Amino acid sequence: MKVLETKNAPGAIGPYSQGFEVNGFVFTSGQIPVDPATGEAPEGIAAQAEQSCKNVGAILEAAGAGFDKVLKTTCFLADMGDFAAFNEVYAKYFTSKPARSCVAVKALPKGVLCEIEAIAVK
Fold first, then answer.
1. How far is it, in rounded angstroms, from Cα 105 to Cα 71?
2. Rounded to 5 degrees, what are φ and ψ at 60?
């Protein structure tokens, strides 16, 4: 197993890793929309979805994979009313249309509006 770590995605805010690579598979931790340069999240679901996608992409890149290699995502929304706006941004990144679960949750870390995790192959 190889621990994935990149400065192009936010560092873990708890006892976990940004991701793991094992047997040709890449597993990312859930990525909230925190800009790794500032530690802050942008306002609004569209900007937050964009940043979460960029953070997932940075971890995939660190593993030598990309969005086109993603098999499955799990998406978490603080408000299912943001579903359409979230999907609009998500579709720009996950063009291969991987399998997906998308659920509404009561709250997310740092009060953000979305979080995305992914499983990919190399």
1. 23
2. -60, -45
